[in-house]
Amino acid sequence: MKTLFYMGRNDQNLSGVSWKIWKIERKGKRVTTWWGAAEVGPYRKPVPKYHLMSKSWTFRTEDVAREDEQRRIREKENEGYERNLRRSC
Question: Cα-atom radius of gyration of the chain, to the nearest Å?
Answer without folding.
Answer: 14
